[in-house]
Structure formats: C-alpha cells, structure tokens
Amino acid sequence: MFKPLYLVSLIFIPTIATAKAADSPDRPNIVFLFADDQRADTIAAHGNPHIQTPNLDRLATNGFSFRQNYCAGSFSGAVCVASRAMLMTGKHWMHLPDNKPASNWGNSTILPALLRDRGGYRPFLIGKWHNGRGTLDKSFANGRSIYMGGMANHADFQVQDLVDGKLQSKRNAGGFSSTVFADEAVRFIQRAESDQPFFLYVAFMAPHDPRNPPEAYRQRYYQNRPPLPKNFLAQHPFQNAPQATSGRDESLAPWPRTKAVVSDQLCEYYGLVTHLDEQVGRVLKALDQSDHADNTIVIYTADHGLAMGSHGLLGKQNIYEQSMRCPLILSGPGIHHGGSSNALTYVHDLYATICEFAEIEAPQGIDSRSLAPVINGKTENTRDSLFLPFQDNQRSVRNAQWKLHIYPKINHRLLFNLATDPHELTNLAEAPSHRTHLEQMQNLMRSWRDRLDDPYPLTVADPDPKEPRYDNEKRVLDVWQPMWIREKYFDGRSNANHGRSRVKPKQTSPNSGTNR
Ligand SMILES: [Ca+2]
C-alpha cells in the first residue's frame, strides 16, 4: 500500500535533506521533542491568544505545522503507552501483538534501532519511557535522566541513566521535570560530535498532571484567565468509557465540574505548557548556537491531547477532538518557513517521516506514512480519513468534514459536521436530513475496521446502562499529587493510594460525597 508513495517521495528527498547523496554519511540530526498530554489548541501561533508559548510560536514561524494531527486511539487507559508504542514501531495498535502491546512489540523494527543500524545514527534518550525495560533495551543503549514510568510529581521524582545498555541506579532528578530534561538535551547538543548523526529523543512529562508548574507560572494565568473550552460541560452526558466515572484522570476534580475548578486547572495546565515552552526554547537556543544548527531537523509533538473540561471530561480516555488531537511542528533544512497543513495525520506517521529525512527505507508492513510529500508541497494529503479506536468501548472515524463516534457498549452514536461544529456540540446522527452522511461514515468505519482486523463488535445485544454514575467517594488519588493539589481538589486527603479509590469518607469534609 505504501510502496508507491515511498517511491514517489524518493524523488524529492534532496529538497528536504539538503541535497545529499543517498549513501552520504552526512545525514541530518533529528531532535525529537515530545510533550505529554498537550492539547492541539495550546500554542499561541496556532490561534490561541490566551496562552504564552513564544518559543513554540517561533518554531512554527520557522517551520511547518500540521494542524490536524492525531493519536490513533489506544488499547489502554494509559493512552501515553499506546501512542509511544505506535510511534516507535510505526504500527497502529491493532497491528501490535495482542499480548501486552504496551511492552511487547513482537518483531517490529523499532525506530531508534533502525536509525542506528541502517543510518549510522547515535540514538539518545532523555525523559519518559513508558513502555517497559524490554522495549528500552531494543531501542536505546544510552540516555540520561530517564523516567521509567508514566507520571510523577514534576518537582520530586527519580531518574536513571542508561550507559552502554545498562540502566543505572535511581537518583533524584534534582529539579523540575521539564528543566531537568532540557538541561540534559542542552548538554547533549553542546557535546555532540559532528562525525555521527544523532537522534535525540526528549520525552518531557509536561503538561501531564500533576498540574503543578512552578508557582509563578500558574499565578500568571490565575491573574489572566483563559476562557473555558467552548464545549465545557459540568458532566459528560453518557457513559462513554469505564474510565469516565472511575479513572484516575477523571478523578482529578469532583463531579459535577464547576467552572471555577476547571478554570483553575486550566490555569495550572497552561502554566505547565508555558514553562515547558521556555525549556524547549533553551534547547532550541543551544541548537542554534551549536555546530549542528544547519543540519538538524527539529520535531515537536505530543503523544495525544487532553479534555481539560471539554464535554465534562478531564482526561484522554475519550475520542473527542481535544483528547486525540495534538500539536505537530517540524523545522530544519529544506522545510519551508511558516508552512501549515490541514492534512489528516497520525503521530505515528513520524516514523516514516523520520526514515525519509534519514534516507532510510522504511520497513514493509508499517502503518506510518511519510509527511515529507505534504511538507514539500507535492501532495495535500496522504490520508483521506482517520480511525480513532479506543479499547473496545469507543470508535471514531473522521474525514475532512465529518466525524462519527460509535460507543459499542451502550449502542450509542454521534455524528458531527466538523466544518461547522469543530467542538463537537451538535449530534446529527439521528437527524433524517443527514442519513446519507451517517451511512457514508459508517461505511468508512467499516472499511477501516476491515483494514485493521478490528476484533471488537460495534453493537452489543445486552448494552450497559447509558447513564453515567458519578460517585465522588470513588475518586482515585494517586501518590504523585503534591499536597497543595490534595488540599485544593481532594479535600486534603493524604491517603494516596494509586489505582484504588478512597474507602472511607473523610470526616472533616462536609462536602465529600455530594455533588458540588
Ligand atoms: Ca500522555
């Protein structure tokens, strides 16, 4: 399926990789800057006047932005894990092994190893690795300040270094996560030799919760508040996924969500983004001042988005735009400044894109499509549609205008006209005047399901209750939330118990267990 595209793309490699011969050892360096849980609408240059991201704005001005970029759903509530597995293998999660796809990637060719073995690259890992030790061993031999988990208190956590394949003992990170990782990236860039191309993978942990940016960064937004999302709701109107009423992400604020609480959490989230932006700026400055400036491609993206009050949700365990869409900007030699595209893309398309930058043939059988032809203006789209499946309980398909949601466990469906309703507010699925659109999108979903061998049904004979049951007593408090967040959003609870809900109401809290 992808071979014709690859053959075509070979023709214009020279414009993207500064006209090097195919066997040239002088391949471009790649700096991959990976945000965690960043919504697509949190970059000022992409149309949000309420957030401060001057460094990402500059990257967008000097680079090429993909404005319709998505995570392809998830096999797990830990969407971070699925997204990273897809990026590293170039495969849709439905094409990864059934048995523990989080950390078992079968015989997949893993991107850093491919760059090393076929391109002579030096892969180097900094930051979050959320896919287990086995995949790490197959991906990187060296790295610094690696976090072998999904999340942590940004201001108090431990990291490990990776030296010639050996993971060293844990040590205190010694600073705020984004700063620590940027420090390492700056150090790597300053010390990197020019005789070997590098693949520097920097996986930040912001703006994933805990939403505890350094104090000044949240104060900045408390004092100048961004508006709530246009699709803010106090509660999601139906049980879209098990995690909607019992998951860790959704437990970060009581039900129903008040405008005041969502506004505060949005300020804290924006603070994390702005702080991350400054750290990204430090990395880009170090690159500009290095010998590598003219031969390095910078990629900035995130693993997926986050609800942050949209549709009554806070997390990423849903298939709405805010949770599956995320930013994507590329910059470097041959990438024209200020370019922008509405092509439908996946995060895992970066696998094939990086292969093309590195002049390495991508493996057969992957689900990743190079974005270089779009960047080069050779085509407007590499895909006509996207499929966003989440576990066995949510399915979505979108094309340029329409988006269909199916909720198999409750036999429910939504149809949105994204051209006029980008915030997914008006369900047209039951409108007779849109029956043709509904059928077209159902056919499109069917073709995607066939292509990916989707094993799960779209309807069930005995559906679960559609009505969600919100119970504030069952909110999950994880061990990483700092005390001020526990006091502010968890009634001061200190019995952190990652993965389990509170057993007993706190006596001193008159509001606990009630809707407020
Ligand atoms: Ca994430």
Characterize this entry briefly.
With 516 residues, the chain is an alpha/beta fold. It is 29% helix and 15% strand.
Key structural traits:
single chain; 516 residues; alpha/beta; Alkaline Phosphatase, subunit A; eleven-stranded mixed beta sheet; four-stranded antiparallel beta sheet; 15 helices; 15% strand; globular; disordered N terminus; disordered C terminus; binds calcium ion
Could you characterize what this model shows?
The protein is globular and about 65 Å long. Residues 1-24 and 505-516 have low confidence and may be disordered. The protein is built from 15 helices and 15 strands. The chain has helices spanning 3-11, 13-16, 54-62, 79-89, 111-119, 132-139, 177-191, 215-222, 243-246, 259-288, 321-324, 349-357, 372-375, 435-452, 483-489; strands spanning 29-35, 64-70, 122-128, 143-147, 158-163, 166-167, 171-172, 198-203, 296-302, 328-331, 339-346, 386-387, 395-398, 402-407, 412-417. Helix 7 (177-191) runs parallel beside helix 10 (259-288) and helix 8 packs across helix 10 (259-288). The strands form 2 sheets. Strands 1, 2, 3, 4, 5, 6, 7, 8, 9, 10 and 11 form an 11-stranded mixed beta sheet that branches. Strand 13 and strand 14 form a beta hairpin. The structure holds calcium ion. Calcium ion binds at residues 36-37, 79-80, 208, 303-304.
